[in-house]
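#random but structural
TW: two for the price of one
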Amino acid sequence: MKALTFIKSVSDSHPYYSSCIELYLSAFPADERRDVESLEKLPDDNRFQFHYLADGNDLAGFISVWQFTGYIYVEHFAVFPHLRSSGIGSWAINHLAEIYKSPVILEVERPVSEQAKRRLDFYSKNGFQVIKSDYIQPSYGPGKKTVPALLLANTNLNPDQVQPIVKELYSAVYGIE
């Protein structure tokens, strides 16, 4: 690893843009992501931030974040396959908590496949725990399905704290009132 940094942008004029969109499309099944056109409109919402993850001058991945009062929500996070297990992902997810100085909330699919188990293990090793095991990721739009998932946090939350978070995610991120 060189000097890892976050670069805030989702501009299609940024040199990392096209590679990052390719990673976004390959790393997440269609039901677990927005259409690219929808993603490109999100910077209009000041709560949303898209960061390229750079390793020196090389693109290593990306992370998209929603900043809410009292926590941040990681909507999508991916590192290029050839860089996985190098420590970049752990650095990024932990550095994110330091930058925002807030608890980090995220969704992962339920551990029914080997890949899903590895993903849950990654987050567990980085201090995340399940805060809602019966969570359902809403549909990203017409033709897309809901996804049975787990809601994770890097801090202890009681059930009274979790429900308002779920309600805010459903409303702000997925447009469900």
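TW: number two ↓
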Amino acid sequence: MSIKNFYPTLVVFVFLSLLSPVFSQKAYACSCMTPGTPQEELKDVDVVFMGKVTQVEDTQQFEPQKSVSFIVEKAWKGLSKEDFNSPLQIVTPGNSAMCGIDFTEGETYVVYAGTNSENGNLQAGLCSRTALASQATDDLAQLGDGISSDTESIPNQNKPKINTITLLIVGTAGLILGSIFAKKR
């Protein structure tokens, strides 16, 4: 093959290469780490609740997303009594390639949501433990009773917990002090 025959092919290839960014669209791919246990995720997110989807609405801000309305049935973290009286809104990316959840109206979900630091919206995605309640039996068992609209108050999930090391230190100190006082008698 001579250079004369190759030159037109090269020109067409370079021209098309330069045009490809003009005609291309954004490509998305969802990639997640495996979520932690229900108790670990409970600590890491801002809100955990079980609710029935009443509306799913496609919205377009900077990226495609969906606004999802829930009637809250039970909560484990981050909600007040007032949140049981009106629909709760969360957002999720517009499709699964962007890690969005395909919520279905009328279905009940266990939702693990964080707060978007830029706009304050609650958001959930495929990388969380959010799932249909019928498929979240392990989560429901580990999360415990939670609260519902007829419960007096929401448990404070941010209470400090005494860990094993603290118990060991206090126990050891108690044994040492006990043996010192026993020797003095």
